[in-house]
Amino acid sequence: QVQLVESGGGSVQAGGSLRLSCAASGVTPSVNYMAWFRQPPGKEREGVAHIYRNGNTFYSFDSVNRFTISQDNARNTVWLQMNSLKPEDTAMYYCTADQKYWGQGTQVTVSS
Fold it and tell me: In what order do the strands lie in the sheet with 3-7?
């Protein structure tokens, strides 16, 4: 059973940075990718960044060049480094494994 616990959220001013962490347990080689999603207030959940088993990454149009996803070799931790944050980045951020397992989320609030 995969378990995911996010941390690192908080409040920051526009232009600032945050680093989110996802502590993962039970991730087997059958898990194809780890990813970060977010859900802004009143909106649908959307993908932010994916990192695959082989290390390849994929970013949404809005996060490319500002966010960086990474993982340790054992895939026990997945990070999301977020730079140049904007108010529209305000959302609950979720870690997921193959979009089958989800964490509880960590809140990110960016003020102008």
Answer: 3-7, 18-25, 77-82, 67-71
